[in-house]
Design brief:
This protein is mainly α and 328 residues long. It has one domain. The protein is 71% helix and 2% strand. It has 16 helices and 2 strands. The protein has a two-stranded antiparallel ribbon with strand order 1-2. Helix 5 packs parallel to helix 8, helix 6 packs parallel to helix 8 and helix 8 crosses helix 12. The longest helix has 28 residues. It is globular and about 55 Å long. The two termini are 14 Å apart. 49% of the residues are buried.
Length: 328
């Protein structure tokens, strides 16, 4: 006997949004590695190496499960490709460019519109229902996220090239949240998360080739060679601790969470990113940022509570004979 769930039936569980929050929070640690690696590699090459390591780690999860693709619809496969291209590859490149050419505070302010985009897309594409009490708490979450990264009536940050990259990144990641939900209702967690990074690697290989960076000097520049051990360690930490592990947790959360709700729990990435800049780059936190952090956590918790009024039922996995499981 094996335990299997009806993946084609959308379902929800109260733990789902918090798994999304945990995955997104771990993603927030990437600044500790991505910012110094920005001085070593071009954005395209950095994201390319990140995906090479991710795919190497994911292959043991993917290969035994390729047979599952026979029962996956074309629509779910299309969502997977979009998630890999927009979320895993293009979104990461845009975020890297935003940090390289923009003010980190402004970048994080702009990224706070991501849940608004994912909620809108989820309502339009999946028909997600929103409770009446969802709207005020969602607004509090967005405002708290912006204050958390330093936007107040008494501060001013000029827009720059990084702001444009951040806006495009928010669009890619917001739509990728919706696409990820479309994948997880039909595909197992290891296969979905693994194939996403494979699609991302193919996309990055093409992008690196088109940008004429598919040669030794660009792929491993002098700055990397001079500190090879440190560079490799930072790449591995970026791809695993801040990449692959969060991706598995995040996709499990998406399996059990509507995209309209998940987007707000992804804001935990902003919270962790602020803590990382405080710990690693010695940027002190103001008193209002601490209050905003508490308000953000409370607001997303109340977003979940509000959405429980329109929640889909959760189905426990049921035992089915191995023979029948292998036929599916």
């Amino acid at each position: 006997m094996v335990w299997s769930a009806a993946l084609s039936e959308p379902r929800e569980h109260s733990a789902g949004p918090w798994l999304v929050a945990l995955g997104a929070g771990l993603w927030g640690t990437e600044s500790a590695w991505r910012i110094p690696l920005n001085d070593v590699f071009s954005p395209n090459v950095l994201v390319f190496w990140e995906h090479v390591i991710l795919v190497a780690c994911a292959l043991p999860l993917i290969l035994p499960r390729l047979g599952e693709l026979r029962r996956v619809s074309g629509k779910a496969l299309a969502w997977l490709v979009f998630s890999g291209v927009a979320g895993s590859a293009l979104g990461a490149v845009l975020f890297t460019l935003a940090l390289k050419y923009g003010n980190a505070t402004v970048v994080n302010v702009v990224l706070n519109i991501q849940p608004v985009l994912s909620t809108t897309a989820a309502c339009l594409l999946f028909g997600d229902r929103l409770a009446r009490t969802f709207y005020p708490w969602a607004a509090v979450a967005v405002i708290a996220g912006m204050v958390l990264v330093g936007l107040t009536p008494f501060t001013y940050h000029s827009l720059d090239a990084g702001s444009g990259f951040a806006l495009l990144c928010a669009l890619c990641w917001g739509l990728s949240t919706v696409a990820g939900r479309g994948v997880m209702v039909e595909m197992s967690l290891p296969l979905a998360s693994g194939l996403r990074v494979v699609v991302g690697l193919v996309s990055m290989l093409l992008l690196v080739a088109v940008s004429s960076e598919l040669h030794g000097d660009a792929l491993w520049p002098a700055a990397a060679a001079s500190h090879a051990g440190r560079t490799v360690a930072q790449l591995v930490l970026l791809a695993t601790l801040s990449g692959g592990v969060p991706l598995l947790i995040y996709f499990k959360g998406l399996e059990l969470t509507r995209a309209s709700t998940a987007g707000y729990f992804e804001m935990m990435q902003t919270l962790v990113a602020v803590v990382i800049t405080w710990v690693f780059f010695h940027q002190a936190l103001a008193w209002y940022q601490v209050i905003a952090a508490v308000a953000l956590i409370g607001a997303v918790a109340l977003v979940q509570r509000a959405q429980e009024q329109t929640a889909l039922s959760y189905h426990e996995p049921v035992a089915i004979p191995e023979a029948r499981a292998s036929e599916r």
